[in-house]
Amino acid sequence: MPSRTMDWRSAFTCRLGLAIAGLSLCLVLTHCAELNQVANLPAQHSAKSARMTVPEFDGDTAIGLAFSGGGTRAAAFAFGALRGLDQVRSPGGGSYLDRVMFVTGVSGGSVTAAYFGLKGREALVDFRERFLLRNAEEALRTEIDLANFSRGLQGGANSASRLTGWLDRNLFDGATMGELLRPGKPIIWINASDLLHRTPFVFSPVTFSALCSDLKEFPLSTAVAASAAVPVVFTPIVLESFASSCPAPLPRWLDAILADRNTGSQARAFATALADYRDPDKVRYLKLADGGITDNFGLSGLVIARAAAAAPYLPLTRDKAVRLRRIVFIVVNSGQAPSGGWSRTLEGPAGVELLDAVTDTAISSAVRSGFDAFRLTLQEWERSVRHWRCSLPQGEARRFGAAADWRCNDISFEVAEVSFSQFGPQLAARLSAIPTRFKLPADDVDLLIKSGSDAVLAQPKIR
Predict the structure, then answer these.
(1) What pLDDT score does 6 carry?
(2) pLDDT at residue 349 is higher than 90
(3) Residue 343: pLDDT band by 50, 70, 90 thresholds?
(4) Angle, vertex CA 178, rays to CA 39 and CA 171, nearest 5
(5) pLDDT digits (tens, 9 = 90+) for 134-154
(6) How many other C-beta atoms lie within 10 A of the C-beta of residue 385?
């Protein structure tokens, strides 16, 4: 069989075809799948638990960012959005890049989110050269041939450690998740998918506490690789639950969510998963794959953080909850537009086009549901913060930084989306046609960076 280069997205949507072909090969090619090892360590209970804190800055406006999946296409468009924010000057000096409090990322978007969380403003200097212009597929098996068909059927054509190793050597330099948790940094959520519970898995203190595992020592490259672990192309990332040696109880809010019939389905599913992580009869080894399967915008991180919040303003700090007047969450969407020539003919779709259509339908439906849950979460959070602010005595509000003209109800949470669709038809089609790969021509990379920057600068809520 002749071989050709495997498109990242097509590899995911062709999993049924791989399974059918692989069945006939199993008797010929056996024991060729690459298996991953357990990627996490048990928690050291004597150590201080990991906490997420928002950075300090002056001003009454803050920014949250959500970077969608989509390989290097998504990473470059998200990087352009960061550059665009850096061009918008904020009152009192500096740029709005300095006011980013939250960043969440999926798959290719998680690479940009993680590197920005690690390096901050310095990421603008070298991310293009260190990652976007590089071939992150060079260590991977990307050929469609008989051996990869069989590996795909048995768990994955590549162990996720191949991508992990490349990211460590070329980008993250051995960094751990603990380096993202240092004071003064934005809160960074890296998102994968829990294949057992069919829910998002967020690399956060909450989830790792349920696993009785050490988040601080977890390699940053492995979290990003889990977020990008497309099924069949990669074997899943494996985490172990250390519940049998964990004395810490699960948080009290977990029972409250499970007992409340009005709890949203996303928060309930997450709470159920956390409870199962502590049950050895249900979970010994957790298998993680591409975050885009369950949430291609990575919006679950904030939904889950709010579900776990012990105070009405969390994950904001008290002083930020008092001083801020506006939080703008920018969803950077590098998803491709609907396509399919079969929509103009009586025949089709069939074969790979049919699998593409089915997968796109499932992911788009999950994206819409996730976006709805995110909007509802923001509305609830805004109401909770407003009510908390208006219940504060004036002296306490001043102690937390309220200005002389402060009004307790003067706070808003807004969502702005930037995507290819806001450009003219020709440019939008050109951007949408860029494949979901982890290697792209320099011209495509630079076009995506410029478009991401232009999209942010043209967004009315940013201007």
Answers:
(1) 38
(2) no
(3) confident
(4) 75
(5) 998 887 655 555 655 555 555
(6) 23
Alpha carbon distance, N-terminus to C-terminus of the chain: 54
Q: Does the pLDDT value for residue 344 go beyond 90?
A: no
Which pLDDT belongs to residue 377? 87
Instruction: Compute the Cα dihedral for 88, 89, 91, 96 and give only its sign.
Output: positive
CA distance 185 to 118: 8
CA pair distance 283, 280, nearest whole angstrom: 5
What is the model's pLDDT at position 268?
87
**pLDDT tens-digit profile of 218-228?**
999 999 999 99
